[in-house]
Amino acid sequence: MNGFAKEILLVNTSRGKCLDAAGLVQCLQTGKVKLASLDVLEYENIRLQIPAREDWEQPLRDLAASNRVFLSPHVAGQTYESLEKHVDVLMGKIRKVVTK
């Protein structure tokens, strides 16, 4: 992120390990990253309610406390269109089994 000439808005919907949380916290503090929207976290196996925030790794606590970070529970791919596609694929597979 330090390679960008200007401040950036960061959106990560891929894999949490693609982004170093401690590095992101530092970039938020220095202003290099203006806003961040994270649908995935470096700590992908964590539930945002459990364990209590006191048990979270420090970078995750910093991100959750920031008013410039939006965290969502890995739902970016759950759109109406993707659900419709899943249903179509599933129904196709059911039809193949039933018509044999």
Explain what this protein looks like in three dimensions.
- There is one protein chain.
- This protein has 100 residues and is of the alpha/beta class.
- The chain has a single domain, classed as NAD(P)-binding Rossmann-like Domain (Rossmann fold, 3-Layer(aba) Sandwich).
- It has a three-stranded parallel sheet.
- The radius of gyration is 18 Å and the shape is elongated.
- The termini are far apart.
- The mean pLDDT is 82.
What Rg is obtained from the alpha carbons, in whole angstroms? Answer: 18 Å
Q: Could you say what the CATH topology is called? A: Rossmann fold
The first-level CATH class is given as Alpha Beta
Mean pLDDT: 82
Q: What is the string of SSEs from the N terminus onward? A: EHEHEH
Number of domains: 1
CATH superfamily placement: NAD(P)-binding Rossmann-like Domain
Tell me about the largest β-sheet. Answer: 3 strands, parallel
What percentage of residues falls in helices of 4 or more residues?
25-40%
What's the layout of helices and strands?
Elements: E1 8-12, H1 21-30, E2 33-38, H2 58-65, E3 69-71, H3 80-98
Name its key features.
3-stranded parallel β-sheet; 100 residues; 14% strand; 37% helix; Rossmann fold; alpha/beta
Describe this structure in a few short sentences:
The protein has a single domain, classed as Rossmann fold, CATH 3.40.50. Helices cover 37% and strands 14% of the residues.
